[in-house]
Design a protein that fits this description.
By secondary structure, the protein is an alpha/beta fold. The protein contains eight helices and ten strands. The termini are far apart.
């Protein structure tokens, strides 16, 4: 399947990204000037203490939430500043998203769930491509099963195949191993790793698990909405050590919330 997105050396770029919630009298800064560039064909994990801005970063990067200031560029093109319809079109063409809650439609088969983004985008429904993706994620014999007939790990594989079906510039995954046992989590992480190694896909994953982060090429750490460090070629021990240090920094001010 030919990509609708022109190849670009940077899959995702965040420029001075800020996101402020609340009111003028009581603002809550979730992201505070985050800048980073992620090359195409790489796997990046995003970690940080609770409330550090990880999920907000992913939501803004996907165009699911609008930043207060700054820009998000995907494959060199900024997310449109116009109406929601333009943002939705842009997102459907360039972003694959693996939701923490998966958001599979229970009345649709695995194949129908995977092809849904194509249907919503008004694109040709390439069932052969979708079936190939399901086979690639190990569900070639489950294409006609509905989510209720699949295990948690199999449902997550469907969600990953759905994220890949439009051949996006970047796949964003929010806690993709949440609520999975260690063996199934390993299988899902190995699948995401193979998306990068075998399909030249770009994956950005929010996780709290150092073992999961060790599957990535690099780990970016957030604290209080700011980039607080980066580890290349991570190991689980190195990531766990860095997280312990960050947790200590957050806990240091008297009465501060973690």
């Amino acid at each position: 399947m030919t990509s609708t997105v022109t190849s670009h050396p940077e899959a995702l770029r965040l420029e001075a990204l800020r996101k402020v919630y609340g009111t003028a009298d009581n603002p809550v800064t979730a992201l505070d000037g985050v800048t980073m560039a992620l090359p195409s064909g790489t796997f990046t994990a995003v970690m940080g203490p609770s409330g550090s801005g990880k999920s907000t970063l992913l939501q803004c990067a996907a165009g699911l939430d609008r930043p207060t200031d700054g820009r998000v560029l995907i494959a060199g093109e900024p997310i449109p500043a116009g109406g929601e319809a333009a943002v939705t079109r842009f997102r459907r063409e360039r972003v694959g998203f693996v939701f923490q809650q998966l958001n599979l439609l229970p009345t649709l088969t695995a194949l129908e769930n995977v092809t849904l983004p194509l249907r919503l985008a008004g694109r040709k429904i390439d069932r052969e491509h979708a079936a190939d993706l399901l086979a690639r994620v190990g569900l070639g014999d489950r294409v006609h099963h509905r989510p209720g007939a699949l295990s948690g790990g199999q449902q997550r594989r469907v969600a990953i195949a759905r994220a890949l079906v439009t051949d996006p510039a970047v796949v964003l995954a929010d806690e993709p191993t949440g609520a999975l046992d260690s063996r199934t989590a390993h299988e899902v992480l190995a699948l995401l790793r193979s998306c990068v190694d075998d399909l030249a896909q770009t994956v950005v994953m929010v996780t709290h698990d150092p073992v999961a982060a060790a599957y990535a090429d690099a780990v970016v750490f957030l604290v209080d909405g700011r980039v607080a460090g980066r580890v290349e070629h991570p190991t689980a021990d190195a990531v766990a050590g860095q997280m312990a240090h960050l947790d200590e920094l957050v806990a240091a001010p008297a009465g501060a919330a973690s």
